[in-house]
Amino acid sequence: MYGKDFCKIYNELGWNYYSETFGEQLKIWLKNMGVNPVSFLDIGCGTGVLCRIMRDMGLKIKGIDLSKNMIEIAKKNCPGANFVVADMVTYQPEEKVDLVTCTCDALNHLSDISLVDTMIHNVFNYITPGGYFIFDILNGQEGHDETPFELAKDGDRRILLQITKNRQITTLHVYTYEGENLLHEEKVVETFYEPSLISDILLSAGFDNITCNDSLNPTHPGHGTALFFTAQKPL
């Protein structure tokens, strides 16, 4: 999953802005909620940007990703953290964790709701009592213009993103150009899940204080294409 070329492009020109923005909003959310975690796990950590932000807050950091190439970059971006190549569905850390995140539509990479169910129940098992699970999912209510648009640019090199939808399936086509020459193409397939179904799974796993909004913080404008869940494990 995710070739070396794509991961390098992702890190240098791509989508780190999302993790950076979410990280700043997460810091505000933690302060506003009076939540002071000691340990942190990022599921689908990618290049380790969110882990680095949480590390700089003094947390004990672990990140997992199915892509070996992403993990290699994450280790360079966030020295001192514990990064592991692992499947989010079956992963079980050795110790319980106070705060778990799963962003950048990572949950939508799971192709079947049964996998989502297993993953959420597993997360509940390894979160400490009183701890939080915070994640995002695709907002299926938002329409998408299927015209490719420029995501990032550096000199003659640029990244175009095209989003296509077919019922419950969203496909992200990522094109990297050098001038007019196509250097690399990557396709990411994601499955849309109804927010009410995700809420039901969270409840069945044992979570409470569940929220779902288009922004992590009310004062921050919504992302548009994402919905943000927060869920707490009872004390």
TrEMBL record:
One of its GO terms (molecular function) is methyltransferase activity. SUPFAM superfamilies: S-adenosyl-L-methionine-dependent methyltransferases. Gene3D superfamilies: S-adenosyl-L-methionine-dependent methyltransferases (2.20.25.110), Vaccinia Virus protein VP39 (3.40.50.150). Pfam families: Methyltransf_25. Residues 41-131 form the Methyltransferase domain. CDD domains: AdoMet_MTases (cd02440). Keywords: Methyltransferase, Transferase. GO terms for biological process: methylation. This is Methyltransferase domain-containing protein. It comes from Acetitomaculum ruminis DSM 5522.
